[in-house]
Amino acid sequence: MSLLRAVATVGGFTMISRVTGFLRDVLIAAVLGASPLADAYFVAFKLPNFFRRLTAEGSFTVAFVPIFAGLLESDGKTIAMRFAEEAFAVMAAVLLTFTVGVILFMPEVMTVLAPGFVDTPKRFDLAVELTRVTFVYLPLISLVALMGGVLNSIGKFAAMASAPILLNLILISSLAVFADALDTPGHVLAWGVAAAGLAQFLWLLEACRRSGVLPSWRLPRWTPRMASLFRLMLPAMLGAAVVQINLLVDVILASTLPTGSVSFLYYADRLNQLPLGVVGVAIGTALLPSMSRQIRAGKDHEARASQNRALELGMLLTLPAAVGLIVLAGPIVEVLFQRGAFDSQATDQTALALAAYAAGLPAFVLIKIFQPGFFARRDTATPVKIAAFAVVLNLILNLILMRYYAHVGLAMATAIAAWVNMAALAMLLHRRGVYSIDQRALSRVARTIAAVLVMALGLFGAIDPLQAWLNGTSMQTAGALALLVLGGMAVYGIAAGLFGAIRFDEIRDALRRRVKRR
To answer: Which of 230, 353, 355, 435 is least buried, going by the fewest C-beta atoms within 10 A?
Structure first.
């Protein structure tokens, strides 16, 4: 599967996932707003996802996929699957033990991870109770990541990319049908998270079975291959930890700010995650197994070219999204969330955080593009050192900026730290002689920036004529936003074509190749 096709597959399903995720968050915002119950639920939702990114996507995947893909390339499917089965057994045992321990000691864990909740006992007790339920999600979704890594390595991206849609549909159904079935809607959502973990696990099991790569059950056993996997995982886990700590620090510090700050950051981050997931995660997911196979086969020039094409595509899609989120932050938040318990003050505060997060969006995507340059070469240690520095910088900036800008300062610090992280990754790849931006990529990115500037001027010019609608009824605001978004996309598309940032003949050729394969 070509890189463009793999990115399109992952990005397409991720887009559906993000859209259903927005519907989920719109419903949650209407029911919970930015209340103490909302703060408690968001912490309960974030904690298992924090550890998931730490143990699964952040460390296991980047260590497992290069080894598994390399074994497929050099030793064949039988040896590669034996390795996957060993990893499945060991990961299941470790994660189940860890999950039980955290659930038993949840009050102590919550005291460390959300210290600001201690001063509000009701919110603290709710967070403990809800997180004990949601934490069941961790072992299930981590094993989902393993099976997804197996499928991605054989060029099957759809099942893993579509799995998050189940989470969103289950949470939407939970609130829509069972909102009053338990003590609070927060309890309903927490049980929905646990149920979604099981649903995703069964979905990936079936996908693996249909693709002929279903791992057989083995007793956990420490083997030389497991030792090699965990040697790669340890620095990757530390690297994932410092990246996730950047986000967790925001939650910890936001818990010490006025009520609602955790929720403002959550809603803003969810909006920022749409282009990051559709573009950054999709490219990173498709790029890692591709580069791993190319490097294992000694085709370093092809790996370098893959990274440059990924950079072109990433910036082509990310830069206009970042500018659009900054310019239209207020109307976007208002249209999506301002209803029910989510009032205009919550809209204003969330929009400010969104603009700050969006300023770092290109950096977040570039990190996803540059990291596979290390991971595919089985270097999981270098990104740790870079990320550790970024986390220290983020903490220092948090403590400074939150004094002046409250929760918005936390988002600003995260964006700045991401740019520093990205720059360091690119610089080290270049110094090692394994990556340099080629003339084509440099030219395309410059043309993309020019097209984005034209789009930004067009948006600023259109806001004034539509100001009355933007300040009008909900329907008028939604209509004005739709005009701005569609108009901005049209202007950007035309400008990108005229400047040569998009080559329509290349898209046509790629589509023809795909049709011929069918």
So the answer is: 230
Most confident of 36-50, 148-162, 428-442: 428-442
Lookup: tokens for 475: 């329907």
CB-based contact 307:374 (threshold 8 Å): no
- What string of H, E and C letters represents the secondary structure of 200-224? HHHHHHHHHHHHCCCCCCCCCCCCH
- pLDDT (0 to 100) of residue 510: 47
Query: How far is Cα 252 from Cα 125, in angstroms, rounded to an integer?
Result: 16
Amino acid at 348: D
Question: Whose structure tokens read 């950047």?
Answer: 246
Torsion sign over Cα 145, 148, 154, 155: negative
In 3D, which of 422, 453, 443 has the Cα closest to residue 322?
453
Query: Do residues 136 and 99 make contact, with C-beta atoms less than 8 angstroms apart?
Result: yes
Query: Which residue, 64, 39, 15, 106, is CA-closest to 376?
Result: 64
Rounded Cα distance between 3 and 287, Å, is 7
pLDDT band at 387 (very low <50, low <70, confident <90, very high): confident
Task: Name residue 329's amino acid.
Answer: A
pLDDT tens for 166-212 read: 888 998 888 877 777 787 888 888 898 889 989 999 999 888 888 88
Enter the pTM of the model. 0.69
Name residue, tokens 């910088």.
393
Model pLDDT, residue 486: 92
Tokens 């590669």 sit at which residue? 80
Q: What is the DSSP letter of 343?
A: -
Residues 6+ apart with CB under 8 A from 166: 196, 199, 200, 203
Cα distance between residue 494 and residue 330, in whole Å: 26
Mean pLDDT, rounded, for 114-133: 80
Instruction: State the burial class of residue 486 (Cβ atoms within 10 Å of its Cβ: 0-12, 13-18, 19+).
Output: exposed
Which has the closest alpha carbon to 141: 89, 193, 102? 193
In what helix (H) or strand (E) does residue 368 lie, and over which residues does it extend?
helix 361-375
pLDDT digits (tens, 9 = 90+) for 303-356: 888 888 889 888 998 999 999 999 999 888 888 777 767 778 888 899 999 999
- Give the number of other CB atoms < 10 A from CB of residue 207: 21
Please report how the helices 185-211 and 36-52 are oriented relative to each other, as an axis angle in degrees rounded to 10: 20
Higher pLDDT, 248 or 431: 431
Closest CA to 144 of 206, 229, 97: 206
Q: Which two three-digit tokens encode residue 142? A: 């981590």
- Counting every residue written for the chain, the total comes to 518
Share of the chain above pLDDT 70, in %: 88
**Domain segments of the chain: what residues?**
3-437, 442-518
